[in-house]
Each structure stands twice: as structure tokens, then as C-alpha cells.
Design brief:
mainly beta; Jelly Rolls; seven-stranded mixed sheet; five-stranded antiparallel sheet; 16 strands; globular
């Protein structure tokens, strides 16, 4: 494989482009409901949370160290028993890397750049890169499956990929 084959060109995160891997958490053009005495638009049911094999939904806060482009992707992970939502607690974009499964390992990775104020929900058993803010702060609310059993698989690439703008 050539160096060009190991490059992943960053693309904007859209609901359509990301649908195979998960859900985009962002306001719609028009809210589904107006609530709270007409003072709040509710953008309803934006993600499909899924938890298998026991455990429960939990909310954690992650504080990730910012990274930079070009970004070296040498490992991907997946969670076979639960989806994982990342909701930024800041107004900056962040990098999302995902891949379809190919015989138990990640296929060709794809890289997305979120818009500010946009989160994601990665469906269960989808290969993804680690949490990758591109600027400080790297603070995120994370909604995922909490349990006492193993819910993490990692795949380390023999040859790393490079994510470019």
C-alpha cells in the first residue's frame, strides 16, 4: 500500500454520510415540539442508544487532550455491547474516525469533522478512533453502557493511517 492509500481525507459530518456508523446530535431546521411555555424547542429522539448483555446507561465526563492535524491513526476500538454518545461541553469542532467491520477488524477508515455544538452517537459494535478534540478544552459528556464485564475491543494497525484536512 502506498502512502496515499494510508491517507484519510477529512470530510464534514452530515447525517447522511454518518448514518452507517451512528447518529448526529444537532438541532434540526425546525424543532419537533415547542415546550416550556413556548420558550424551548425540543429536537426529539436524535440518537438510538443500544445496550446489550446487562449493564445500564450511564453519563460520564471525559477530559481529552487535544490533538492536531495531520493526525496519526494507529488504533481503532469498538464496543460490542453498547452505543456511545459524545456531547461536547464546548463550542469547538472535533474529529470523528469510524470504519465498517471487515471480518472482525476495521475496514477503510473514514474521518469526519463535526460542526461546533454538534455531538455524535456511535452505534454499538462500530469501529471508531479515540476521542479526538482538535482544540482545548476537550471536555465531553459521554452516554454509554456501564457494566462489570468487558465491552471493549481494540485493533492496532500494522501500518498507521494519516488523517489530513
Amino acid at each position: 500500500m502506498t502512502t496515499a492509500d494510508r491517507q484519510i481525507r477529512l470530510k464534514p459530518l452530515t447525517k447522511t454520510a454518518f448514518a452507517e456508523f451512528g447518529d448526529v446530535l444537532a438541532v434540526k431546521a425546525k424543532p419537533d415540539q415547542i415546550i416550556n411555555q413556548g420558550m424551548c424547542g425540543r429536537h426529539h429522539n436524535l440518537a438510538k442508544l443500544a445496550f446489550a448483555g446487562g449493564g445500564q446507561a450511564g453519563i460520564s465526563v471525559f477530559d481529552a487532550t487535544p490533538r492536531a492535524l495531520p493526525y496519526t491513526l494507529d488504533m481503532m476500538e469498538r464496543h460490542p455491547k453498547g452505543s456511545q454518545a459524545f456531547v461536547p461541553m464546548h463550542d469547538a469542532s472535533f474529529l470523528v474516525i469510524v470504519a465498517a467491520d471487515e471480518n472482525g477488524q476495521p475496514g477503510q477508515p473514514q474521518a469526519f469533522l463535526t460542526a461546533p455544538h454538534t455531538g455524535i452517537n456511535i452505534h454499538k459494535n462500530i469501529w471508531h478512533g479515540v476521542l479526538t478534540p482538535l482544540s482545548a478544552p476537550g471536555l465531553f459528556a459521554v452516554i454509554d453502557r456501564i457494566g462489570n464485564d468487558t465491552n471493549l475491543e481494540e485493533h492496532w494497525f500494522d501500518e498507521a493511517y494519516t488523517v489530513i484536512a
